[in-house]
Amino acid sequence: MPKKRSGGGLSPTQQAAKFLGVSVLAGAVLAGIALPAFGALGLAAKGSVESFDELPANLKTPPLSQRTTILDAKGGQIAAVYSRNRTVVELKSVSPYMQKAIVAIEDSRFYQHGAVDLKGVLRALNKNVQSSGVAEGASTLTQQYVKNVFVEEAGDDPTKVAQATQQTLGRKIKELKYAIQVEEELGKKKILENYLNITFFGEQAYGVEAAAQRYFSKHAKDLNLQESALLAGIVQSPTRYDPVNDEAEATKRRNTVLARMAEVGDVSKAEADKAMEAPLGLKVSKPKNGCITAVKGAGFFCDYVREVFLNDPVFGKTSAARAKIWNQGGLTIRTTMDPQSQEAAQASIKEHVYQSDEVATAATIVQPGTGKILAMGQSRPYGIDTKDHQTTINLSVNQDMGGGAGYQPGSTFKPIVAAAALEGGTPANQQYSSPYEMNYPSPVSACDGKTWRTDPNSPAKLTNEDESEHGPYSMKVATAKSVNTYYVQLISDIGICPVIDMAKKMGVQRANGGKIDQAPSIALGTQEMSPLTMANAYATFAARGMYCTPVAIESITQTVGNQKKSLQVPKSTCSRAMSETTADTVSTLLKGVVEDGTGSEAGLGSRPSAGKTGTTDNRYAAWFVGYTPNMAAAVWVGDPAHKRRMINITIGGVDRGKVYGGQVPGPIWRDMMNGALEGKPVENLSLGYIPPDPPKNKGDGNGNDDGDNGDDRGNDNGGTDGGTTPTPSFSLPEGFIQGNENGGNGNGGNNGGNGNGGNFP
Predict the structure, then answer these.
(1) What's this model's pTM, rounded to 2 decimal places?
(2) Spatial distance between the Cα atoms of 73 and 542, rounded to a whole number of angstroms
(3) Which sign, positive or negative, has the C-alpha torsion 705, 711, 715, 718?
(4) Hey, which bits of 369-498 come out as E strands?
(5) CA dihedral sign of residues 67, 68, 73, 79
(6) What is the per-residue pLDDT across 25-45, written as a single tens digit (0 to 9) for each?
(7) How far apart are CA 547 and CA 261, in angstroms?
């Protein structure tokens, strides 16, 4: 006796045989195709047999694409992102009304037949012949499920989608064979569950759970009779029967489904009639997809997480492999974002820089010693409406991670020069003449045995911010006052290469991916950096010399069907960039900046902190970068297009004549950090010892007098003009030579830039 299916259908083998036997009669009607002339049926049948035999035996069902949920470090949702809005649910989580409605309207004999409904095929053939067209299809629900699998596998590729849905005999034969396999392996209940999860219900909703949420703002298990009938009716033509855009057409279709449910005995006629009288009862939920929906202003952090996933080889060897996993979704990504820090960042930004201002601001907080990114915000929100000052460019990160080309960090780069000098043996009380104005020193040693030289016919000049700023200065005072000429003299003394090497150890790189130029001007922050780069570099000082690569992802769980698995995620790698002594000494230097230097407006009161201001030439950008032992942060303010100078400008409702790093970025940093650190223990900075400055010696009046008013020639046996060659090409032991009463005796070449020949640094 042939084996019967539960429900009265034939076995899969019998179904295939019977299909092939009747294909001559049915032609290509099988799943809704009708050939116009019977003469083609014989050839169609012959081709069907050959195609059928050549098909692979098993249908490969890709995991259903689902939404990905991005969480903060505490487990709160930041955003949901998806290529297809879908939440897979079990059949027990779908209303019985919904189950009956979809079967009634799409395949009322679903539980009586196998993969192919032969009665339906013949009925459709008869109607199609009578109408001289395609009046009725005969695809079973199982066949429709198989077709949807093909569409799902095609993803967002329009060519593949077209191939998966084209009305050809070959595709229908392929669909049939796989339907037979599915019937044999899964059974009716599982097929229905899979179908309800895979099919498209319009309005970006894939699967019945997403559809219930979209149209009625409820779970699929809570759908009533009329709601179920409405959703079931949409499937045949999601555009035509869209209840959001055509209520009348959707109502007619819903009532057709209700009538069919009564006809097959799923509900009584009285129940169906009552449901037909009910309004549609829509309670539409707006689709919430993508980083634009992120809470706490975390759209850019959300976007950075996506960039990390798509770029890091840990998630796949190729970009295509990583993109496939991302688009498939079903990920739960727990990030490093601290909700308190993120809220504090956005609150401070909103207070000090308006969304509509001519310039923007971006701020990033990281955790020293771990590389965890705690917050990332900016004044121009994530979005595509440029008229509303929205942008999708993440102003906090490098270009290859969704950012721009970066911004000159100005004097916030000087501590990196100081660290390189200290690490190389330069004493922490090193002094230089530090004139108000000077030529760039030349020559200066660079990497790989190269030498940087200025054009002798047109030497480049530099100045300090104010004419009152002239030395001699020690490293501590020069850092607090942000003296340009001091740091150019320092880098010309130690060479360019140690600074570039130190920057590399601290993860400092240009935002556009280019190499840092080998020129003394790098001491003044002329190479474009991102706020994340600078925040993480300063975290190295806070962590007493340990640099840790930045990370944004703590863990990822992937859901495939009913199975969950953990994915490997990138880990921060930490390495020693400098000695603890060097880092602690830099902290002492930067503590002075916020106590009585250019960053005094950024001070955190009783909570110890350290930091540095930065303002670029022509005031296109202003910075404050600083840290406590448990947080490091960078704030940048400027025009991303690098067109608007911050002179005579209104920012955050306050008119500014000139913008300084300590003036606008400093208070943003202060308020952000106060909010982020509220309730957290006060920790002391690890500080290094800086010896007192060497005493000043008096000259003879011609050279130095009291060390402040000597001339700048420095030529009494002192060599060339001190402004041109302010440092010797060699180093002598500290205190080996002291200035004497003839003022310029060998000292003018060192300190003669402002007549300060009293000390040989």
Answers:
(1) 0.76
(2) 22
(3) positive
(4) 373-378, 431-432, 437-439, 444-445, 451-452, 461-463, 473-474
(5) negative
(6) 344 334 333 333 333 333 344
(7) 67
